[in-house]
Amino acid sequence: CEFKGRLLVGVGKTLRLYEMGKKKLLRKCQNELFPSMIVKLTTHGDRIYVGDMCESVHFAKYKRLENAIVIYADDTLPRHISAMTLVDYHEITAADKFGNFFALSVPDNINDDVDNPSGARILWDQGHMNGAATQCEHICQYYLGEAITSMSKCSLFPGKTESIVCATISGGLYCMVPMQANEEIKFYQHLEMFLRQESTNLCQRDHLSYRSYFQPVKCVIDGDLCERYSNLPPAKQQELAQDIGRTPVEITKKLETTRTNIL
């Protein structure tokens, strides 16, 4: 990828920074401390976000004065990265080849101005299990069931809510929409909890255990399941509406509003 007028390349386990010469590319600096093959790269400012083939995402930084690339944070779980996109300076969303969608972040007050260790000092500066000194925080985790091959943060129409749009290997398109209002989050959590008990599927599988196939589902609500509310019998719709403190018409309108905020 492009990085400040230069070329940033993952060559096997090595991350290299090239500059354009008169006849050839000139190698300016490199980092060989990544555990396996680099498959995804994205940048923001001086930070570099590296997707590893089987060791999740690494957060690195380019130090201009020393002309060096150093790793300051990584993930604790091994993941086979298949797609990745940047949310903001501190957070990134990614997916692995087993169909998991997740988001990682580093604390706002993290010190990314670390030194590049060499020689015997590298044994002292390494963190737990030879990892980075800082570990990423897991914001959310969700098992989609399909391997995600492409991911992008965008707004589908001008003026609409920004979302993470994912494309899967079987041709599916999914939108991950952020929720900010506590009232909206509680509403969908209650709706999802009720539909897990009332809505049945062809395989008779438990919804919660399915979405937690690899890691427990965290901070993600299944919108496809919430859309099944209109397929319930009128008596069940009225029962759920009374439990939430709304009418069936209000719940249906809420689902339509969430959909139109994207489309």
Task: Characterise this structure.
The chain is 21% helix and 35% strand. The protein starts with a strand and ends with a helix. Strands 5-6-7-8-12 form a 5-stranded mixed beta sheet, with no helix packed on it. The chain has 263 residues and is α+β, with helices and mostly antiparallel strands. The chain is elongated, with a radius of gyration of 22 Å.
Features:
alpha+beta; five-stranded mixed β-sheet; 263 residues; 6 helices; four-stranded antiparallel β-sheet; 35% strand
- Write down the secondary-structure element order: EEEEEEEEEEEHEEEEEHHHHH
Q: Determine the mean pLDDT.
A: 87
Q: Strand count, sense and closure of the main sheet?
A: 5 strands, mixed
Count of DSSP H/I helices: 6
Q: Are there runs of 5+ residues with pLDDT below 50, and where?
A: 119-125
Instruction: For the largest sheet, list the strands in their spatial order.
Output: 5-6-7-8-12
> So what's the overall shape?
elongated
Which structural class matches the secondary elements? alpha+beta
Report how far apart the termini are: 30 Å
Radius of gyration: 22 Å
Query: Helical content, roughly?
Result: 10-25%
The total count of strands amounts to 16
| Portion in beta strands | 35-45%
Write the layout of secondary structure elements.
Layout: E1 2-3, E2 6-11, E3 14-20, E4 25-31, E5 38-44, E6 47-52, E7 57-63, E8 68-74, E9 81-86, E10 91-96, E11 100-105, H1 122-125, E12 134-135, E13 137-143, E14 148-154, E15 163-168, E16 173-176, H2 182-198, H3 207-211, H4 223-226, H5 234-244, H6 248-262
Parallel strand pairs: 8-12
Antiparallel strand pairs: 1-2, 2-3, 3-4, 5-6, 6-7, 7-8, 9-10, 10-11, 11-13, 14-15, 15-16
